[in-house]
């Protein structure tokens, strides 16, 4: 038999025993090996290409946005300067709520890093003024929560 087949046939048994099965009494009386505690590794839902300039979460380095998705660097967040992006990755979205911002009334939803759960900024769900409609579906990330990665000089 192959090693692969042997692993499946002998898994419940000790290497010297070839006859015990899961339901046999001798298997039930065998000492159980201690459980190994598994820790959750920090994996992200999406990785951006390393050949592009990217922005990452300053707290856990999860990728957030590709530089090509940047619309504007001239935005104000609740904690200082912020950038407006077309799309982002590895972020979760809270419930939408109406807020009066510097440019008027908007329906926005806070966004947070899916890896470390830090609030990063918000998503524009709806703009009530026609001049602000271009923001709908776009994302604000505050500079205080992101770092430049990959290819910045």
From TrEMBL:
PROSITE patterns: YIPPEE. One of its GO terms (molecular function) is metal ion binding. Keywords: Metal-binding, Zinc. Residues 53-150 form the Yippee domain. Belongs to the yippee family. PANTHER family: PROTEIN YIPPEE-LIKE CG15309-RELATED. This is Protein yippee-like.
């Amino acid at each position: 038999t192959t090693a692969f087949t042997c692993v499946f046939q002998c898994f419940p048994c000790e290497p010297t025993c070839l006859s015990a099965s899961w339901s046999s009494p001798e298997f039930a009386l065998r000492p159980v090996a201690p459980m190994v505690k598994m820790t959750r590794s920090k994996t992200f839902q999406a990785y951006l290409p390393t050949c592009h300039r990217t922005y990452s979460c300053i707290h856990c380095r999860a990728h957030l946005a590709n530089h090509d998705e940047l619309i504007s660097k001239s935005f104000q967040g609740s904690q200082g300067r912020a950038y407006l992006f077309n799309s982002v990755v590895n972020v979760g979205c809270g419930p939408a709520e109406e807020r009066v911002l510097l440019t008027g009334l908007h329906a926005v939803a806070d966004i947070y890093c899916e890896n470390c759960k830090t609030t990063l900024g918000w998503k524009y769900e709806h703009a009530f003024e026609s001049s602000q409609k271009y923001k709908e579906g776009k994302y604000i990330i505050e500079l205080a929560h992101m770092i430049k990665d990959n290819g910045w000089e």
